[in-house]
Amino acid sequence: MMIDLYVITDESVAGGLSHAEIALRAIEGGADVIQLRDKACGPRDLCRIGRVIREITRKTGTLFIVNDRLDVALSCSADGIHLGQDDMRAGTARQIAPPGFIIGVSVGTLEEAIRAVQEGADYLALSPVFSTTSKNDAGPGRGLEALREIRRNTSIPVIAIGGVNPGNVDDVIAAGADGIAVISAVVGSPDITAAARDLKEIIQKSKVNMRSR
């Protein structure tokens, strides 16, 4: 699973744009993954929104992930689910989900990362790498050393989220991130498409520079 840019929708950060419009604009800028995230939205509305995003992402070949809610993810035929430490365990989700279903897990420590791998996670998200205001429940930044430690000790993709922006992408990729997940760096921009395009270009250049070292 190759991921450069993973964009998480947030209507409040986007100044009132809908989740579907955020997804469409981010995909136009080159987002590889769209995650539907809305903590205040009920399951019925999430399913309705998810089905719209599913149609958008199906046409473009973009991965579509739903945050937290396995029922919603399955109902709208999403490609996968992203789970936090307080959500359903990855192993339980794996027992319920169909073959090929992607399961991502937010982790903050090496111990959590190893447990997620053992339970069948397909990717890890170190959250947050740096302190961020986009996710009120994120907690303090874990730092680049935590990212390096998880990368050294696990074999599945590791995504960095939390306070990542164009100015620190090089450091995050150098520390071992396989991809970057963002909210405000793209969704909070006046031009979501341009912000996604610019950030993806920076990520790809950082990866090229890493390979040439």
Looking at this protein, list some descriptive labels.
single chain; 213 residues; TIM Barrel; 8-stranded parallel β-barrel
Secondary structure blueprint with pairings:
Blueprint lengths: L4 E4 L10 H10 L4 E4 L6 H18 L2 E5 L2 H6 L4 E4 L6 H7 L5 E6 L2 H9 L4 E4 L17 H10 L4 E4 L7 H6 L4 E4 L1 H4 L4 H20 L2
Parallel strand pairs: 1-2, 1-8, 2-3, 3-4, 4-5, 5-6, 6-7, 7-8
Helix pairs in contact: 1-2, 1-9
Can you describe this structure?
- The protein is an alpha/beta fold.
- It is built from nine helices and eight strands.
- The chain has a single domain, classed as TIM Barrel (Alpha-Beta Barrel), CATH 3.20.20.70.
- β2, α2 and β3 form a beta-alpha-beta unit.
- α1 runs parallel beside α2 and α1 packs across α9.
- The chain is globular.
- The mean pLDDT is 95.
What's the CATH topology name? TIM Barrel
Fourth CATH level, the homologous superfamily? Aldolase class I
Number of helices: 9
> What does the largest sheet look like?
8 strands, parallel, barrel
Q: In the CATH hierarchy, what is the class?
A: Alpha Beta
Radius of gyration: 16 Å
- Tell me the overall shape: globular
Measured distance between first and last alpha carbons: 23 Å
Number of strands: 8
* Helix and strand composition category: alpha/beta
Can you tell me the residue ranges where pLDDT is under 50 for at least 5 consecutive residues?
A: none
Mean pLDDT: 95
Query: What order do the SSEs take from the amino end to the carboxyl end, as H and E?
Result: EHEHEHEHEHEHEHEHH
Helix content: 40-55%
| Count of the separate structural domains | 1
